[in-house]
Recover the amino acids of this structure.
RNA sequence: GGGCCUGUAGCUCAGUUGGUUAGAGCAGAGCGCUCAUAACGCUUUGGUCGUAGGUUCGAGUCCUACCGGGCCUACCA
């Protein structure tokens, strides 16, 4: 039995996430977690909300709430939505937790002890009206290059020229519009990750099986220009983890907090500690996942994330781990994803364009979304959500191929034999042929799931469902029944046995439907290590019930209505 | 500007280290079945693999240029 540690990139706190966010990390991570649990592996699956940073403060201010209260409420909301999508986290933590405070400060202390922290005096733009330092992109003004009036402090979107905030003509705060800005000196801590470049480079080179998307981004950062640059890990903000060196104050850093990208990945570890706290476990119980000196040697650690998160997970976080000099677990595999677009463009929170997690669950059950999203997950390039495609997948794959299979088998049995598994002679050549086909496809399915080739796994699963319909067509128990009811009974018994088999294989993709199938068949088997045994599991005389329609189809009218509703406003 | 990814049938995508007639699902056409959510099964029509060159006995697969789409570019997270 293997031990698998799984983390999903932690979603930012400032609002409800859209389907693109969901499919880019949490959903595939959940698929992998469910699969590994089903195979009998010991799984620790951690996610959390990422709560610090300027946008969180601004979102709270906009909502008219103290930032702490805002984050607590949004965490509750996101937790609820995660449950709605059946994301099976062992713990859904918060980066603002006490555990993360302690651990982040601990890492900073260790890095400082190792000589990897440098204090840097820099100048930044301060807004008197807003009472805060402004990140570069929160400063707007006229572009000195093209004259556009909405250039940002980091780059002009019109002419794409890279800018420095002080380049802007008539600079103003993007938050308040105030022009009462001044340049102030402020001291910050930098992580000297440039000194670890060669070590990180070798480490990345050793990961030959990682997706190209992952390694190419890491390589770019390692070798672009002068190579990996040092990175500021503190900010002048109120909301965040106070800068401390371990448990000691850090002279000169009073009133400053750690930068969200320093503390966010540490929350993976802290979140596991939160799990222990929440479940009456000891420190040893979470440390055996993270400390190679305390039992984590045999752990396989897999991270899931969108491509925008790759630099932090391939470079900054490993630099933190390695630089600490302590035996923390490093990631073994990074599965990264491209973006999901929406109907010919991008999802847009501000324009209300696209489907957000809460809306999705209002419209249709989570299994519908899970199936479409996972079977179209943007693995090799950006992919696109269209309502036609969604409707076709749901109606064809779920309703027609799987749902209708369950329906036709159970209803036929009920009308001819009652709601019990009929007997009939032993399986013959026809059944044997199906068993062999299933065994081959099951092996392929497992290979894809283990390799996290999600689209291919979904295709294989669909092909496994199709085998049931092919069998029925060939066996035609409705014809046999007229001359040889016993032979028909065997066919029906075999087909009924396929239902729990399908339920188990499908569970990582569509957990609710899986449960419906198992409940209807009144059974709860484990993973089918042997297809023959699995298809003999339900004996003659076993009672079952005919389930309700498992997947209602999406009509053209409903589809058109949703397409209009979520088109957004320009 | 630089880097990376991507362009294969109407649509969504597979195509392992270059090797005989380029595959799947959906959509379309035909046939069959009638147990089932007018569902299912079988057969079948669609592609000079973005364009132009090059390497090779042989290229969707490697190289170059160009065209199109996307992402990243370190103070949004």
């Amino acid at each position: 039995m293997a031990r698998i540690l799984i983390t999903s990139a932690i979603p930012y706190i400032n609002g409800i996430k859209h389907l693109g966010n969901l499919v880019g990390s949490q959903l595939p991570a959940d698929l992998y977690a469910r699969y590994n649990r089903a195979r009998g592996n010991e799984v620790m699956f951690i996610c959390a909300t990422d709560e610090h940073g300027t946008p969180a403060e601004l979102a709270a201010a906009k909502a008219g709430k103290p930032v702490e209260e805002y984050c607590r409420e949004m965490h509750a909301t996101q937790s609820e939505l995660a449950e709605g999508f059946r994301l099976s986290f062992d713990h859904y933590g918060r980066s603002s937790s006490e555990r993360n405070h302690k651990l982040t400060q601990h890492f900073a202390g260790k890095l400082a002890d190792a000589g990897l922290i440098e204090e840097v005096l820099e100048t930044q733009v301060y807004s008197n009206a807003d009472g805060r330092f402004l990140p570069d992109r929160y400063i707007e003004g006229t572009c000195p290059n093209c004259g556009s009036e909405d250039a940002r402090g980091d780059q002009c979107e019109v002419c794409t020229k890279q800018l420095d905030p002080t380049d802007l003509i008539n600079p103003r705060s993007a938050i308040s519009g105030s022009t009462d800005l001044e340049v102030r000196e402020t001291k910050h801590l930098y992580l000297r990750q440039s000194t670890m470049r060669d070590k990180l480079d070798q480490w990345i080179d050793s990961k030959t099986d990682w997706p190209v998307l992952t390694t190419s981004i890491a390589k770019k950062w390692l070798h672009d220009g002068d190579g990996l640059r040092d990175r500021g890990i503190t900010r002048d903000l109120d909301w965040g983890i106070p800068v401390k060196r371990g448990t000691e104050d850090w002279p000169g850093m009073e009133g400053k907090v750690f930068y969200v990208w320093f503390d966010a990945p540490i929350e993976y570890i802290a979140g596991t500690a939160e799990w222990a706290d929440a479940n009456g476990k000891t420190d040893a119980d979470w440390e055996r996942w993270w400390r190679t000196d305390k039992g984590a040697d045999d752990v396989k650690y897999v991270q899931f994330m969108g491509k925008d998160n790759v630099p932090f997970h391939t470079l900054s976080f490993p630099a933190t781990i390695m630089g600490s000099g302590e035996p923390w677990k490093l990631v073994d595999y990074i599965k990264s994803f491209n973006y999901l677009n929406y109907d010919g463009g991008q999802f847009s929170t501000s324009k209300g364009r696209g489907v957000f997690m809460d809306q999705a669950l209002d419209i249709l059950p989570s299994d519908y979304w899970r199936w479409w999203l996972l079977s179209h997950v943007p693995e090799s390039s950006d992919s696109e959500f269209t309502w036609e495609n969604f409707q076709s997948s749901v109606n064809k794959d779920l309703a027609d191929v799987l749902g209708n299979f369950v329906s036709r088998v159970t209803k036929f049995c009920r009308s001819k034999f009652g709601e019990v598994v009929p007997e009939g002679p032993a399986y013959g050549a026809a059944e044997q042929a199906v068993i062999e086909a299933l065994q081959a496809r099951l092996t392929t399915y497992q290979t894809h799931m283990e390799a996290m080739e999600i689209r291919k796994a979904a295709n294989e699963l669909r092909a496994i469902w199709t085998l049931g319909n092919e069998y029925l067509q060939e066996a035609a128990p409705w014809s046999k029944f007229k001359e040889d009811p016993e032979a028909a009974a065997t066919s029906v018994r075999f087909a009924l046995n396929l239902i729990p088999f399908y339920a188990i294989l499908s569970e990582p993709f569509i957990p609710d439907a899986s449960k419906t199938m198992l409940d209807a068949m009144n059974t709860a088997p484990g993973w089918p290590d042997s297809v023959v045994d699995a298809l003999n599991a339900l004996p003659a005389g076993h009672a079952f019930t005919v389930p309700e329609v498992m997947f209602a189809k999406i009509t053209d009218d409903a589809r058109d209505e949703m397409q209009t509703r979520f088109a957004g406003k320009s």
Summary: Chain A has a mean pLDDT of 92. The first strand of chain A starts at residue 3 and ends at 8.
